[in-house]
Amino acid sequence: MSDRPNTPLLDQITRPADLKRLSDAQLTQVSQELRSETISAVSETGGHLGAGLGVVELTVALHAVFDTPKDKLIWDVSHQCYPHKILTERRDRIRTLRMKDGLSGFTKRSESPYDPFGAAHSSTSISAALGFAVARDLGGVIPEGNGDAIAVIGDGSMSAGMAFEAMNNAGHLGKRLFVILNDNEMSIAPPVGALSSYLSRIYAEEPFQDLKAVAKGAVSLLPEPFREGAKRAKDMLKGMTVGGTMFEALGFSYLGPIDGHDMDQLLPVLRTVKARATGPVLIHVLTKKGKGYAPAEAARDKGHATAKFDVVTGKQKKAPSNAPSYTSVFGDTLVKLAAQDDKICAVTAAMPDGTGLNLMAERYPSRTFDVGIAEQHGVTFSAALAAGGMKPFCAMYSTFLQRGYDQVVHDVAIQRLPVRFAIDRAGLVGADGATHAGSFDISFMTNLPGMVVMAAADEAELAHMVKTAAAYDAGPIAFRYPRGEGVGVELSEEPQVLEIGKGRIIQDGARVAILSFGTRLSEVQKAAEALSAKGITPTIADARFAKPLDRDLILDLVANHDAMISIEEGAVGGFGSHVAQLLLDEGALDHGFKYRSMVLPDTFIDQASPKDMYAVAAMNAEQIEAKVLETVGVVDLAARRG
Ligand SMILES: Cc1ncc(C[n+]2csc(CCOP(=O)(O)OP(=O)(O)O)c2C)c(N)n1
Ligand SMILES: CC(=O)[C@@H](O)[C@H](O)COP(=O)(O)O
Ligand SMILES: [Mg+2]
């Protein structure tokens, strides 16, 4: 290491092996520099700031003690991985985070060998770590080698069933495995539930300052790892919990709680477990989300996610909005309907603000339930609320509803229970990338017998669909809408109840019909304007429903046009596939009628702006225009040659 004064130590770190040459005091200095670098980078890119700031010391300590990438460091959700990326050969690209062709905002196997397991949905890390540990012990061979497996999981993510399924299995198998429980007493919103209270009680029973003093005393016995003192420190730390913990009951050794911002505690404890552990160990680390950046620490969400910002003031640089977000239209409409109907209630899985249910929670707290990160439970809970005579709105992001799919089938659809699924973040979402894209819900919901599936073309349509769902008691019903702002249409005072299975004509035309499902409608309209200059006026229809399909509307379009193109913000197997099935069943394609569908391509699309992602998917106005020209056979040869 350079002895040059004032040279940031971080400038001398390219990869974790470089940390091994530093003293403990220098590691503390690296942490400070890493925190500044993280803040500086996220101020330019926007993204998940608070979680990363909370694990800066932990990141340095883990990389200093363990031997990544041979040892497998697995970040749960991985929204806290920016400091990890800086230390693992990616500092030079850290200012491209979440951008097109830049670094992913999450861990990603294809990006780096230091990311042994990708994530972005929560609570998968313990299962993954256990899989690596078992593969190691069975002699699995991979280029980086198979060392220790370490899962870092937050208190919010620990509330999901999957984490406990993994703990249960790990405790039974008894493999050497490390779980770091990063307890910052925050999820995106303040954490909820009995587990959260339990974790607080673990250290509330002993004043934290006392524990800290004892822990410090214990670890001061450990000038070097692997000495006799290590065992004593371990025993002392373990002995601090009164009467054992639920983790011990599950077969883990429990260590802690320790202060996750104090390198004098983190380093010796990690060295101790690395040297001594034989089975599964859980290390309970207390941290602060947003640590070390006052605007994040002061924010309601502790800086969970931010737009680009000014580092000095913390002020976020957001583009002014021209229309309300779909999320807020959903939240506002639901609150209005709940005022008229006391059976309306709402369920969110740890996303009250993200789904707009914060509005419902403020106005009707006794009818609003945040179940924690527990989509499976949230869906079944909603099913039984419906069975019990309530009108539950189960509001989830499309991507997270995937986790509750068996419950949608088994508990809701088969029993024909009138759960109202409000599916937010439908379609391509932008900077969060492929893991968060809402690509599959049209397919997986329309495949279910008895499920009604709607997509809003704009924010006014969304309000109608919320009202339609509230009025529909015959079985389950779902409506989907995208992330971000509406298109700026006027919202009616009184939303309407739509007729189930009926679409609407937006524009009458000739030769070709465009049948839109969802918010591609505005792109279709832009394409139609460009086409009119070329002498083509397509008919435009908004299907509103993918299930049941508006057969009359569709067969009428077939009867009066030479060709039809459907478009939806979803993968193959959804709306277009159901339309194709109808046309086949009706023999509508037997006589040369041309039908084409525009769906998301059969690839996972990397992060970029939604517009750029839809360009990759070939679903923006220009591409719709090209599809129409191609379909009706008026291909602009000059443009093609150009
Ligand atoms: C299955 C799933 N549901 C919801 C989310 C959205 N989400 C991302 S981070 C987060 C909070 C996680 O809290 P915690 O694990 O305590 O981490 P912290 O942000 O506090 O570091 C949530 C709810 C998700 N990523 N995955
Ligand atoms: C990490 C995670 O899963 C969430 O924080 C997600 O990034 C939120 O997305 P929205 O910004 O669309 O609410
Ligand atoms: Mg947390």
From TrEMBL:
It is an enzyme of class 2 (transferase). Thiamine diphosphate binds at residues 79, 120-122, 156-157, 184, 293, 375. Pathway: Metabolic intermediate biosynthesis; 1-deoxy-D-xylulose 5-phosphate biosynthesis; 1-deoxy-D-xylulose 5-phosphate from D-glyceraldehyde 3-phosphate and pyruvate: step 1/1. Gene3D superfamilies: 3.40.50.920, 3.40.50.970. Residues 324-489 form the Transketolase-like pyrimidine-binding domain. The keyword Transferase applies. SMART domains: Transket_pyr. Keywords: Isoprene biosynthesis, Magnesium, Metal-binding, Thiamine biosynthesis, Thiamine pyrophosphate, Transferase. Coiled coil: none annotated. Mg(2+) binds at residues 155, 184. Its cofactor is Mg(2+); thiamine diphosphate. The keyword Transferase applies. Binds 1 Mg(2+) ion per subunit. Binds 1 thiamine pyrophosphate per subunit. Pfam families: DXP_synthase_N, Transket_pyr, Transketolase_C. Belongs to the transketolase family. DXPS subfamily. Homodimer. Catalyzes the acyloin condensation reaction between C atoms 2 and 3 of pyruvate and glyceraldehyde 3-phosphate to yield 1-deoxy-D-xylulose-5-phosphate (DXP). NCBIfam families: dxs (TIGR00204), PRK05444.2-2 (NF003933). PANTHER family: 1-D-DEOXYXYLULOSE 5-PHOSPHATE SYNTHASE-RELATED, 1-DEOXY-D-XYLULOSE-5-PHOSPHATE SYNTHASE, CHLOROPLASTIC. This is 1-deoxy-D-xylulose-5-phosphate synthase. It comes from Tritonibacter litoralis. The gene is dxs.
